[in-house]
Amino acid sequence: MNQTEPLRNIGDDDDVRTEFRSLISSLPSDINVQGKKLCNYQGCWYYEKNLHAVLDYQKHFKPLDTDIILSSYPKSGTTWLKALTVALLHRSKDGIQSHPLTSDSPHGLVPFLEMNLYLKSSTPDLTKISSSPRLFSTHMPLHTLREPLKDSPCKIVYVSRNAKDVLVSLWHFRSKIEKKEAEISSLNSIVESFCKGVDNNGPVWDHVLSYWKGSLEDPKHVLFIRYEDLKEEPYAQVMRLADFLGCPFTQEEIHRGSVEKILNLCSLCNLSNLDINKTGVSWNNMDHSIYFRKGEVDDWKNHLTTDMANKIDMVIHEKFQGSGLKI
Ligand code: PAP
Question: Under which EC number(s) is this enzyme classified (predicted)?
Fold first, then answer.
């Protein structure tokens, strides 16, 4: 989540900027709980600066067939999914010595499209990306993400999480950014805003459903993973992720304990204790450590009142009815 002002290219095409500004001014707008203006584009709410980046992404991004895009609603397990994917793609017979995860944070290794690359430049130089395959991440919903992908066979992995845990995680995250105690009044506002659907990248139900439906319609290219399943059966889920990405574990790797090594490397405890994540700072000037907290399922029970939980459950029940999806 980027809180800093974008550093745009000086030579941006003026006509395109004017076209974007005119489009954005015609969109529905609203104010979120933090008093920040949001615009609704293709059914999703964005801060204006991120929306410019989304539009640039849609206009300029040229996918490679091998690209992998990791997607999520904020606070749903983005950091963990990034780490697991990097670890899967960089596994080698030598184990985890000099592993990329020990020299950069998961967010540094898998940059956000609209909150990093296209926020800094309308046409970022993607040839500088040295990883192969290229790894990107996003908080855009699937229909918006897919616009420039057209018939590309690139792979998209989505991680979803119980909405009540997402809200509690977001509450702690925002409190840390604002250097305030996590107070019940701000949690109440976050719940209200969630139920109304007006928050950056919201409404969460449309976000999740876009990927859920996409994964059912096109399972070869869209994989849907639940944070809770990753916690409950990490081994099976990592095998599933490896199969989907076209890098399944060999029998030899399984015997050597490669899956367990990756899970240990990417555990919250291990990642949060790496020097790079204890002391480093992200592209958006945030400490890497802010992305690691408890990582527990049902932590909401420690924070939400019964009234808050019931309100959220009612919205989720109504919005997901008939979709076959339980989060
Ligand atoms: P982002 O969308 O802003 O990048 P994201 O990584 O999705 O954030 O969410 C952070 C949550 O993932 C935190 O959850 P919590 O507040 O409930 O604790 C964080 O602790 C959790 N998390 C980060 N890394 C891991 C990991 N390796 N394993 C499990 N959970 C993790």
Answer: 2.8.2.-
